[in-house]
Write a structure and sequence with these properties.
Blueprint: H1 2-20, E1 24-26, H2 30-54, H3 56-61, H4 66-82, E2 91-93, H5 96-117
Antiparallel strand pairs: 1-2
Helix pairs in contact: 1-2, 1-5, 2-4, 4-5
């Protein structure tokens, strides 16, 4: 049950980011959105810890602020995989710095708020 709740939080925070951030667009169907949410969840599970480990010195120097860039890199990977050049799932971004960077911030904040609201399932 915890896996499903985590997936719903990821999908919800991605939907909020697409809704709020100008330049982060989704034009696919609902099942393509679910596939993009699964890809984002897998990227957070596999790629994000590797990037955190590799960027540990920079994270320490910036007192953790570089983790926002790590989140943006993971989101850019998902945009690239879900974009027209790879799987064509309908997820696009106008640029790394504004759309993806702000999208990563919104996803982080929305995920944090949704995790506060929803029960743990323990």
């Amino acid at each position: 049950m915890s896996f499903i709740l985590s997936f719903l939080v990821t999908a919800g925070s991605l939907a909020i980011a697409i809704w709020i951030v100008d330049g982060l667009e989704f034009t696919g169907s609902w099942w393509e959105f679910l596939i993009v949410a699964v890809i984002l969840g897998l990227a957070n599970l596999i790629v994000k810890p590797i990037l955190r480990l590799l960027s540990l010195p920079i994270v320490l120097i910036t007192f953790g602020l570089f983790l926002i860039v790590v989140n943006a890199l993971v989101l850019q990977l998902v945009v690239w995989l879900g974009g027209p050049s790879m799987m064509d799932l309908g997820l696009t971004s106008t640029g790394f710095f504004w759309a993806t960077f702000l999208g990563a911030i919104v996803i982080s904040i929305a995920g944090w708020v949704l995790n506060l609201i929803l029960p743990d399932g323990e």
